[in-house]
Amino acid sequence: MTANKLTLTRQAIGLSLIWIGPPIIFFIRDIIGFGGSTAFTGLMYFIGCVLLVSAKPFSFLSRVNPLLALLGYSFLGLAFLYFVLFNQEKTSFGSDVINFGILFVLIILLFRMDDEIQDFLPVFILLFTLLANFALIYSISTNPNYVLGIRATIQYNTGSSEYSGNPQIFGRNGVIGIIISLLFMIKKQEGLVGGKSKIIAITSHFNFILSFIVLALTQTRGNLISIVGILLFFLFLKPSTNKAKKGQSSKGIVWTYYLFFLSAVIYLNNRFQIYDKVVMYYDQILFVVNRAINTGVTMGKAGDNDPSAMGRVDNIEFVQKEFLYKPYNFILGNGFKYKYLDIPILEVWVNFGVLGLLLFVLFNVYILVSLTKAIRSDSIFQNFIALLYLNVFITLFTSGRPVDTIYWIFYLIVIRFINVNNVAGKLS
Q: Among the ranges 16-30, 138-152, 256-270, 412-426, which has the highest mean pLDDT value?
């Protein structure tokens, strides 16, 4: 090791809190009773940033792909410029200042971080997704208004008589949990923290099943669509070397786990008809996904339209009308957060014009090119960010905003680490 293990562990916890931790933050926020408080979320991000602080000198050129950084940072800089000069949603000014502040601080902290953190992050990503899955299960099991079949989320009081929640963030956590758990299950890596632990091995198998359950419960369309492609891309992973496999077998404990698991399933099915509920969710998910795809493909002309997808169809029609009557506004853009479209790739053009669209598209295309190498890496962390990007790519067309922190924390991590060798600190 060229860096202190304690420092790397602290930094891995801090980065996991900022990156993977939002579902847990929302859960804690709900338990304490802060509701939709931005201040509490900002405090948790601040704690994460403090954990990332390092005495290591700032290093840029040897730790990044220059072209990827140029495209990504240029778009982020353009978005900040529009935020300052051409802000169309001043009601969220405070939260936007916090979000941009977090991102700019994170850029600096990431380049003061040792490359070896890639060996520490996977185990904490696994544990954070497990905690978030437990948080959702606990929340719906203690919510008297929840019934099986509706989209699961943690609901918090917004200060009025209405309750609100976001199933997207927990559906995404389910996807992350599936990816990282499956990587621990099928791949071995030399030097990986927790790689030889039988407890981590059994945790990955448990979290894999639990993450699938959470993804089904949230019924988030983009995440459900993306997981199919992600699982197919697992076929392209580079097999573990015999040296990496040596001394890392946990077959006995895994077989014991599945024996207990199948026994529990049989028992629960006899008492609560679990099989019928699984079939119900399977049929419902197929129906929801097919209806959403049909609504999008036919632009709302299908007989039975999905309400969520129909909202995006309405937004596309809005953009068409805007372009018809004011096409010149699409050259420079209409301004920061001009219109919430729930289609990030389209909102980029509407808000930031041709330059913004060009930077954003080239940035994401370059990541797609880069992930073809990362997915064949020996490193589990490299495999993870490559596979997770497939989920992000799908959601660029289905949910969120192009300047959302949840996108850009991941983008900054990709800029810093994709195809960076964790031994030499150079591009591999």
A: 16-30
Q: What does the pLDDT read at residue 425?
A: 43
Instruction: Look at residue 1 and tell me whether its pLDDT is greater than 50.
Output: no
Domain ranges of the chain: 67-92+306-421
Residue 162: pLDDT above 60? no
Separation between Cα atoms, residue 91 and residue 73, nearest integer Å? 25
- Quick one: what percent of the chain has pLDDT higher than 90? 44
Model confidence, pTM = 0.88
Nearest to 100 by CA among 45, 175, 177: 45
CA 50 to chain centre: 22
